[in-house]
Amino acid sequence: MKIFDAHCDVLSKLLENPGLDFARGHEGLDVTLERMLASGIRVQNFAVYLPERWSGDFKHVLESVDLFHERILALPQMRFIRTKTDLRLALNEDRIGAMLSLEGVDSLHGNLALLRILYRLGIRTVGITWNRANWAADGVLEARNGGFTAAGMDLIRECNRLGMIMDVSHLSEKGFWELIEASRRPVIASHSNAKSISNRLRNLTDAQIVSLIQTGGVIGITFVPPFVSTEEPVSMDRILLHIDHICALGGKRHIGFGSDFDGIREWIVGLEHAGQYDRLVNLLLKHYREEDVKLFVFGNWFRFYMEHLPEESALDQGAAASSLGS
Ligand SMILES: [Zn+2]
């Protein structure tokens, strides 16, 4: 079964340890080409995440984009997805689609020209914060629970204008509600779970989940063990509780997965790397109708990105501006 995963941190590991080998090795990586092929991952969103000591340095963002090209897109099995056409072709050509996202806008320092440059480089999704505050908004670990700054509101407007998809994973709750209010486009949570099932700060409240559903977003259930369950060890069937809960809130067509592989140091038992994703699919097939499993593991993300990625022609205009204009 085709799998679409909305978040992994391979690029961050490659940035810190260039010796790691995505194409052949497994040493030190959860997501590798061989494992994606083995489990049926057909689209993977690769996050540009900078370790905290580098988080303000745009140069490392560009280096991450370079690594994406040199180490991942250079493989003939991969195809870069920047447009609806790319996504369609990746599937028709039997290649793995690779998308780019930015996790936390710290390195932009409020300079929206840098945001536009990243859009032109093919980044299509932007997480506003990591756990801490930055120039745009507060992350979820800031006790003051601040929302967006004035510069952050400008970021929302520019993302909306460009068609850059905004990602609320790691964003403070106040920031979440301000974004829902201000954004003219649906937003996503690429790697977040339900707080009602695992009461962790990083997870989403029922009200947040309902709001993402009502505004047409998608929630990527993540495999970070403490976000799945507060009881250890965490088994794969705990993931079903999050699916059931989000479905009960009306979210059957808004559930996806965002593993956070290569961004985690502990794993769900039996779901320890990307090559084991098919085990999750088999478990889901025991509990849900096949057509629903297809939505969860692929269809919902696919539908969202087919709707919100730009047309090829929009890029030819030079500027990234979408039909929304300024
Ligand atoms: Zn993250």
UniProtKB/TrEMBL annotation:
* Listed GO biological process terms: proteolysis
Q: Which GO terms describe its molecular function?
A: metallodipeptidase activity
* Cited Gene3D superfamilies: Metal-dependent hydrolases
At the top level of its lineage, which domain of life is listed? Bacteria
InterPro entries from the UniProt entry: Metal_Hydrolase (IPR032466), Pept_M19 (IPR008257)
Q: What is this protein called?
A: Membrane dipeptidase
Organism the protein comes from: Cohnella pontilimi
